[in-house]
Amino acid sequence: MISADRLDYSNALAVTANEQALMNLVRLRFAEAPQFLEVSQIVGGRTQETVVRPSLNLSGLFVPHQPTETVAGASLGAEYRYTDRPTITYTPIKGEKMQRTFLTPIPPAAVLYLLQAGWPADRIMQLTLQSINGLRNRATSLGRSRAADPSFERLLELFRQAQDAGGFSLRVEKQKSGDVTLLVIHKDLQAEASSAMLECRRLLGLASEQREFKVAYGNLAGDGVDIAMQTRSLLHMMLELSACVAVPESFSETGVARRVLEPAPGERLPLPMVIRCSAEKPAGAFVAVRHLDHWYYIPESDVASKGTLSFLQILTAMLESDSQQLLPLVTISTQ
Length: 335
Hints:
Strand content: 25-35%
Shape: elongated
Mean pLDDT: 83
Number of helices: 9
Strand order of the largest sheet: 4-3-8-7-6-5
Largest sheet: 6 strands, mixed
């Protein structure tokens, strides 16, 4: 019973979380405000009732001065009723938690933790960074559109090569002022990884003899020993991802949906996500939502888009962590 409840509620939460994330990306594509609800409590109200009804019937024909013949009959009836009426409490994310979770740029250390965990360096940096040591990323969010600096595009390729070859790692030092995150370039690398890290040093303006570089939030670092990452907030990432939502051409022409910057010739393709649009409800969709009489969805077969949406969910869960509350709370009552 516990295993069934756990899986059922877990699957339901996963489906609704994906639908909310997708709907918010669609809303941002239409320049609408996103809405964030979290499940704060689940109370499963279950009742089980079993009723057994045995009966015995005796019947006979009475004739004076004659033996009486009696006919006996028995029956057994049973009834089972099961009712599950869960009560779910939703809490809007507003105020301080909204600011902390969705509007505050993520810590640069979080980007390195993700790389250390094996997430592809080029995709993670493309989504989470606005700039690194002055090299600017592509921007397609509301109010501005610009292509990425060619050096930034090259840097993404080099970091991915170095990551695959184990060319760098993360180290955290405890200091009086707090934790300091360091990017450590390994020694004795193979020729390809060594060449990639050497070009990374040149693009970022880092000292060639230095192996450890302090990573901090910022736009520029000109001393050759620091890496300044201007990271994005979660809402900023969602704005960028909303450019991946396909809309009917008439919506863009009439201003119903905002226009987005098309990739320049030779430029790296936008983020690895495609949200398709259909007038009819799609079959075989991983997640689908309806907005303005159209369906927006990600097919089950689109692994790249599913992975990007899953990454967004994981990052949201990381940033929503609150030591004062353990949510959601699941209470299951059985009678």
